[in-house]
Amino acid sequence: MSLSQGRDLFMTPGPSVIPDRVLNAMHRAAPNIYEGDLIETTDRILENLRKVAGTKGDPTIYISNGHGVWEAALHNVLQAGDKVLCLATGIFGNGWANVATTMGIEVELVDFGTSCSFDATKVADTLRADTGEIKAVLATHTDTSSSITNDIAALREAIDDTGHHALLMVDCIASLACEPFEMDAWGVDVMVAGCQKGIMVPPGVAFTFHNAKAEQVSENTKKTSPYWDWGPRTNPERFYMRFNGTPPTHHLFGLDEALTMLVDEEGLENVWARHTKQAQAVWAAVDKWAEAGAIRCNVSNIADRSSAVTTVVSDTVDLTPLHRWCQDTAGLVLGVGIGFGDYEPHQIFRIGHMGHMNPVMLLGAFSTIEAGLSALQIPHGGGAIAAAGRVLSS
Ligand SMILES: *Cc1c(COP(=O)(O)O)cnc(C)c1O
After folding, report:
1. Which residues line ligand 1 (CB under 6 A)?
2. Which domains does the chain have, with CATH numbers?
3. Residue-wise pLDDT tens digits, 234-280
4. Which of 42, 43, 62, 237 is the 20 to 30 A CA-CA neighbour of 337?
């Protein structure tokens, strides 16, 4: 018998919990797509997207998921035969590299493993050894598989120190509107993000952002896909050109509401501070459980940990029964393990703490996980909930 008849809690790192306000904003009749409100709504969205990304550059909205904008970003500034340096700290870094390879782009992959962030010195050494072939550096801000967050400002500094001209392209799909990100201040040339993680909207639209330097490169790049070309989308002669066809009308209404909540109401600084605090509560709980030696945070160095997602690993225990217990008995869906390094998927669970999340949801999740650990006799230290509570009230 399942006891779970209320609202299930999804602690997956995307899609994240959708606020009722966002759902309600989408629940309306089809709008006029030729003139009026929708055009103003879109302009307001673009302005708020600039704020979320910390840029005066151009955002482009695609009907797509994150995988699509990986391709969109590459397509606009690179061609088959060009070379990129791709930095990986988890499977998403490798994923972007694979897309580039399939597009005929030559990829030099530097894999930093799955337990700590980039080593900027190593990146600088690679760029110094380059004879001008590398056109772009591809980096992941937060890798959602390992839950490592990389210091993008430090990466930019390391690139600048070498005097290398490469574009810096960053995947912020997991981190945008969760963790501080300042595209212009940090010198990021191209950034990609999706709507279904920190932005709290059902999956379906995704974004590229680019600055003037990337635009210049783009103008000298031969485009082979009209769909991904950001040119007409950022300078549309007619409204439909923004989306290369029919606009994603109801996603735009949801997105407008979500950005109003994040930018105009809560404020980005508060959004970031909330995520930091909630992440610290997660780590406090997991670190207590870890005292018994069966499970622990994948990332040990606090500075390398994401405040959007936490990957928990076990060297000794199969965690599949815990996933099942949480889901079937209690209605808590944890993020599945994406295998990496020495870890198989069944040795991993992930806690998504991104987006529309509050302490009662977090504490409910911790208590459920702890009850599951107890029920399944998986060794775990005590005091996790109290430790999380202390963090939340500090
Ligand atoms: C989720 C995610 C992706 C992939 O996005 P999809 O919408 O699933 O295609 C890529 N990179 C990172 C860092 C992600 O978290």
Report:
1. 14, 65-67, 92, 140, 143-144, 171, 173-174, 194, 203
2. 9-16+267-393 (3.90.1150.10), 28-265 (3.40.640.10)
3. 999 999 999 999 999 999 999 999 999 999 999 999 999 999 999 99
4. 62
